[in-house]
Amino acid sequence: MVKKYRIAIIIFVVSLVLRLVFAFLLYGSVNFNTDNFLNSTHSDGYYEIAYNLIHHKIFSMDSAPPIISDSVRTPGYPLIIAASFYIFDSLWPLLIIQIIIGSILPLLGRVISWEIMPNNKIANLVGWLLAVEPVGIMLSTWMISETFFTLFFFWFVLFIIKFIKAAQAENTLTLNNYQTIGWAALLLGIATLIRPTALYLPVILIPAWYGYRFFLKNQYMHKQIIIFLVIFTLTLSPWFYRNYKTFDVVSITSSKEDVMFTALAPSVLAIKNHQGYSESQIDFFKSKGFERYPMVNLDKAAWFQRQAIEVLKDNPKEFIMIAGISLLTFFTHDGMLTFLSFLGLIKSSGLTVGQVLAQPLPEMFDTLKELFFSPALSIMFMRGMWFLATLLFLMNIVRAFIKRRFTVLSALALILVAYFALTTISNGFGVNARFRFSVNVFIFMFAVEFLFVIIDYFKFKFLKTPLKVS
User: Fold this and answer.
1) Per-state percent for the chain, helix, strand, coil, to nearest 5
2) Angle of helix 408-423 relative to helix 92-116, nearest 10 degrees?
3) Which of 39, 108, 329, 348 fits 154 for a cystine, CB–CB 3.0-4.6 Å?
4) Helix, strand, or coil here: 407?
């Protein structure tokens, strides 16, 4: 039994150790029940909401009166933080659970990879990449929603894969098939309540499903799709109701309007006016009558959206440029600067190459050790790795289309990557590696498959080993 799961166990242990070490270096001397802890991590307003839920019985990011209800955040992650505080009076249990989940995600990613591309070498390498990727390590120790969201998102993907495979076998009328799509809807609903990025996925996936079934001239399975929509909507309905009672608007979140006004419009204007992003934000807010970051709630969200759309309409070329930059950043941002900054490892010797080489060996070793942790070297290396991964990912997609080897599960993976990439455009210059985290598994999967194709080709060319059919 142990031998069968040996690789999975090793991946889990390595993932766990890396995350524990990072957490120890980050929080080793911090009291988890003080503001010093919050100053050591990202919380993006989630902690403030949890604090207000416990002490003021209101869902708000305000840290000082007046405490006003918020509609930008969804309730999933603040409730998890609040539960940790309410039950244990500490964030330690939440951090431990999050680190464990973060260590399980590479295993789930490994399973997803194998289900889509049944190849142990590819699946194992995808698992290892997810285990050691710096952003994944970092996010598992922050008080933000990505780790929990990705857990439920991965489960949703696994159930959707199971549903598609059952449909391919024309096993459409069994109770198990209805249960599978029901679980998929529930898990996607929970993921959306944790992080609303996934809200519009059904709008993309359902038409894609009907197109796929039409192309194959198979049953559309209307009943299963209706069940999916009903359960997904019912899962979100308590928050729809809360927002209707609080803001008189039926919607899950105002995050779309928030990022359009506070991130996308200022990014477009930054290019137009040749300004820095922060400076452009301040100027744009002031031009609309705000002296600081505005609160974009649902009752006024339509106004904020109109202001942002006006900027986009007036500056189409700049918007296209921002869209291109955002997509490039989505695929290539490495997160290494933030990773090293939080560990306090960013150092620079200030010496030229010649001066380094002229040093005595002990001093040269110390200098090279410092350079290894410098932003330039580490960031260049990780950025290069992500450029390579993106290139391999894209080349494999082209290869799959040319060779007509694109399966429905491969298409599902590509749709999910495209969805997350396109939805991040609204964040403008605010896009970073966090936005890609939940779909890294698919990018790695395609990239690793093409990497093995290249390796096999060179083995055939230079070592005369048989060329595998691929």
Assistant:
1) 75, 0, 25
2) 140
3) 108
4) coil
